[in-house]
Amino acid sequence: MLQAIFTGFFGLAAIWFAVVVFRTSSMVRSALALLFSQAAIGGMFLAMQTEFLGVLQIMMMATEMAIMAIFMVMYMMDPGGLGGMDMTHQKRASQVAGALGALAALAVAFLTGWGPIAGEVRPAEQVYGLGIEIMERSMLIFETAGVTILTAMIAATAIAIKRRGSK
Amino acid sequence: MISGARQARPNFFRRLVAWAQARELAAFVVSGPEAARAIGVDLEAAGLRASHTPRHASVLVLVGELPPGLKRATAVAYAQMPRPRAILAVGVGDVSLLPKPDVAVGPGQEDVAAGAAELRRLFARSAFSPEASDFDVDAIRTQTEYVCPMHPEVVRSEPGSCPICGMDLVPRGAAGVNNLGAADDAGDGTHHGSMDHGSHEQHDAQDEDHGSHGDTGHGEGEHPTAAHDDREEGWDEGREVADHGHSEHDGHGQGGVSHGEHDHAEHQHTDEGDADAHPDGHGDSEHGAHGEHEGHEHTDHGGHDHGGHEHMDHGDMGFMSMVEMTENLPRSSDGLQMEWVEDVPFGPLFPGLPGGLTLTVTLDGDTVAGAEAEGIEGRASAKDLGGLAETLADRLARLDPLSPIAYRVLALRALESAAGVEPDERMVFARVGALEKERAASHLGWLSLFGRLIGYQWLEDRAGSFQLALVRAASIDEVARLWVEAGRLSRRVEKTPLLRRKLRGVGLLPEEAEPLGPVARAAGVGRDARADEEIYQSLGFESVIREGDDALSRLRVRLTEIEQSLDLVQKAGEMTIPERTLNGVPLREGSATVETPRGAATLHLTPERGALKDLELDEPSARHLGLVGVVAEQQELADVLVGVASLDLSPWGVAR
Amino acid sequence: MNAVLAILMLLTGAYLVAVLEDWASTGRLRLAGPITSGLALLGRESIVPRQPDRIFFEVAPPLLLVAALLAAAVLPLSPNLIVADLATGALFVNAALAYVMVALLMAGWGPDGAYAMVGGFRFLGQLIAYSMLIVMPITAVAMRAESLFTTEVVESQAALPNAIYQPVGFVAFFVAAMAVAFLPPLDLPTAPGELAGGVMAEYTGWRLAVMRLARAVLVVTLAAAVSVFYLGGWLGPVLPPWAWSAIKTLLVAATMLLAGRYVPRLRETHVLEWGWKIGIPLALLNIFYVGVLLLVV
After folding, report:
1. Which residues of A are less than 8 Å from C56 in CB distance?
2. Which of C45, C49, C268 lies at the smallest CB-CB distance from B82?
3. CA A44, chain centre distance (Å)
4. Candidate from B175, B269, B320 with C-beta closest to A82
5. How crowded is residue A70: how many other Cβ atoms within 10 Å of its Cβ?
6. Where are the alpha helices (DSSP H) in B81-231?
7. What is the spatial distance between Cα B89 and Cα B36, in angstroms, rounded to a whole number?
8. Mean pLDDT of B492-512
9. What is the pLDDT of residues B113-146, one digit of tens each?
10. Where are the domains of chain A?
């Protein structure tokens, strides 16, 4: 019961912050609202007793969204939001897409056979289980993903550096 | 009652707090702790810890005379100190803009200690008082100007409409102040700024409160709010970060101009679909294309008025590519153009720079796109120095409190040259001794300031106490002891880890710059007025020359010069300048050059019927102030500050 | 009950760190210093800048405090004195410390002042330099402990503290910890000489008191993290476990505070260069090295 309450609370918080992302005109507020929205989702994970995922989500999103805040300030106009710019575009298309997406998500949630729910999985076992999963069945996936991301980072940095000798 | 008490009735808890505050006095010193040390006053020993910003200080300590420019800055700084606050005046005369000092003492250590104790008593008694009044001075009131959001050059003092585009003028201070956006990301590679797309109007009721005018959090008690509303940001002279120049938005781009590494995924309003709907004629510069948008009302862009604006559908804008928008902006050194944050003031009471120096900087992200340095406003000009010949030495000595003896000697030698009189040997030796002692003290003061700037706390403390010891040294034996200490200091500083990395290559000057003094000697150029003088040659003097022309070599030159100067003082045998009068001797033209701690200064006298009207005073700092721009260009902010500090500017010289 | 005790000890630790910091900068040991300065600050006027981003301005100090407290909550002082012994404790420390950066970003952006803003964004640059450096050594530590429980991490060092077992990781984590707590020489966001206080410049009165408290708690937390991960936490002969924890934590804190006095502040370019060019390869080597040690030795 308590779990349901907390999950619901975090879920609502996530939705509320997500709405704030688009309602505000200030870039930094938008980025940080997204951060807290993601952190609320991390809170949901914690409330649903998936501790590792929750902690991971909270940790990653903090750094990522802060970087995003920087980029938004960098590239978007009016980061202070004093100009009152509208953050939404293609309203009709996005409304339709949103509704369709929500229907699809609900369909997947309700119609899929998710299998039996584990009773009570202790967090230590979760961590262990995740580790085994990464190292056995999903090793190839994670390795390629990791190397790809590293390559992308290095490539991005290399492109950003001014070449010597050329303007 | 202290002048800056908080308005509240004292009760038990408040008395307890007042007692605590009396024990935690933090002093903001004008014009810098070096000024106090230069007159031999140790504020720490008197119980006043130095604070680097007025916001964290509770006592304003005034040391020495304040020229008008500094008075204004001090008033602003005082207004920014949170209450309860008090003023301690040390050897100061007129403090016109400020309230009357709570405690005024003469310039001696015991006096200052007694004054500090008195301050503590005052604080404990009356930090909270129901009769507190406010501090409201012209200097701290802001002026609202009205600017056109799209044409920043149009500035009026009354509301109206822009003559160029017809938009209503927006009060500055309301618009655009939050658009600071200058960010520093992964090192020097990428610099960013923000673009203020000033043409968008408000949304109805969309934004939450973006800030509040004149809102002050009140702690205990009530405050009259008048002065708070007008508190300036940043406790240095002038406005806070002003609006950045609104650039010309060079048209709106079409479609997806690929930026290579710039991922526009976050560009929420990138709208590929609608982009084609826009004709190419989104002209250049201002939004001439606004005619196409519906329901435009360019009204108040200030962040707080949301009433009744139509809402512009951003979807019509099309894709705005950064490349096109920033096409005409000046480029920074890495090729990324962005909007600049102009006129960021660093000074005149900035902790890392000499007190009184105003450095105005244009920030381009974390890089400095341009910088300008100015001395103290309202300081003496050459005309003010004219007058009777007898008092010339005194007048010149008051000119620059950072090196009064050097200027006194300059005046005396110029007078002697004009009178055709030669000083006797004892006088010459005494002058050498005094001059060198001051040189060492000045370099030590600089060293302490420099240590504070680069975050080297040990150096700041050590050089400060060394300077104090030297200023107070009364005999040649003490100087001898200090000479040994100077050697140790020099070696210890050289061995500091990471110091070389911090300073090497910072503050480079171009070839054409012709600096003077230690700055020149650090570039391998042996410019030293002392090298030609017989007396110095007889004492075995050799200029200290280093290669490198960066902050590190300047540091090394000054460290070595400290040792050398103390050695010379010992050899000279005397430290005080004897009096000399030249009454009655007819004066012809004369000139003299003296190597002040900052470089060679030359004084040229042209007496007219016994009085000196026209003086030509050529000083090193005047020349070095002009070098600030080239030192600072396209450097990172911290490096700029280090470079400027390494020039050892004196903001006091003669105004031009 | 134990949780309460742990929190009390944490606050005591923060108090002592404040005393230490004062001592490191002035050379005088004033045991009642934090109390008087806290009281003094509470009685001072709170000034709010003219056009702040109000939410950020207000939230930043409490967020900094909360982040530091959360990180401290999973660090054990003794096998029983821990607020929350999470199964992902070692990772949680890092998650909580990430919000230090969020708080400083808010503190930089909120007051609408040039110095604060430059300070806030400099800290973000610093974050990019240290963020890998603070996670990778934890990975190596967790490898040895074969668990993310902080209590098990300490117990795994019964034979040999990690500082000797993985010295490279120790140095990297120590430096990264100083970077998180923005202690000199890595105090780029609050550079007193260059930015007149930076992110802390615009705070006065009780908000400043909260910021300073948060900073002290942060230093204690990081010192505790260093001692838990690398110095063996509560392990040691003769004295009770919590005493060892306290001693080690305070020693680490004192070292961190003193080190900055004798070194000038690093340039931002260098922080980033060394963090990435030297720090990350070393951290990777450390992981490799620990892996080899664990599997082979």
Report:
1. 28-29, 32
2. C45
3. 13
4. B175
5. 25
6. 109-126, 226-229
7. 11
8. 87
9. 888 888 888 888 877 777 666 766 665 566 667 7
10. 1-79, 123-162
